[in-house]
Amino acid sequence: MQIESSLLNDLANALKAERKLQKLSREEAASVCGVSASFIRDVEANPENCSLGKLVRLIGGLGLSLDVAGLQVNANSKYHQGVRQAKMSRRPDFGVSGGQLVNPRATQQPSDAVPSKSKGNQS
Q1: Has residue 110 been placed in a domain?
Q2: CB under 8 Å to 48, separation ≥6 — which residues?
């Protein structure tokens, strides 16, 4: 599949803008997203050279989703496939607020959690 470099540059600009909107340094975003700060720098500067798997982690870690629509076979294309439209949007259940990662589902306690005993209540 061949993706036009202009789409990749648009994606890189959108990711950088979102990171800055959330007031995250590259290091902070890397920690949240599970990638390195150098990877984020590379995405923002040269998106065509980046790993798709890490790019997906970065997108998800910033609380965004990427929808690729219009995958089609194009007989005139060297690779016979093309991407017509890529759309990125925020996931409503995930994001960064006030410098802290917020995920409403993460605040729920697991059903199999074992409460710890306090020192004053030993049996």
Answers
A1: no
A2: 5, 8
Yes or no: say if 22 and 62 are a contact pair by the CB < 8 Å rule.
yes
Given a cut of 90, whether residue 29 has pLDDT beyond it is: yes
Distances (CA, A) of 98 to 27, 44, 87, 92, 121: 16, 23, 26, 16, 37
What is the pTM assigned to this prediction? 0.54
Helix (H) or strand (E) holding 7: helix 5-21
Average pLDDT of the chain is 68
Quote the domain boundaries for residue 77: 5-101
Rounded to the nearest 10 degrees, how much is the dihedral formed by the CA atoms of 34, 37, 38, 43?
70
Query: What is the number of structural domains in the chain?
Result: 1
CATH of the domain at 84: 1.10.260.40
Helix (H, G, I), strand (E, B) or coil at 119: coil
What pLDDT digit, counting tens, does each position of 77-120 carry?
Answer: 443 333 333 445 555 554 544 444 444 444 444 444 444 444 45
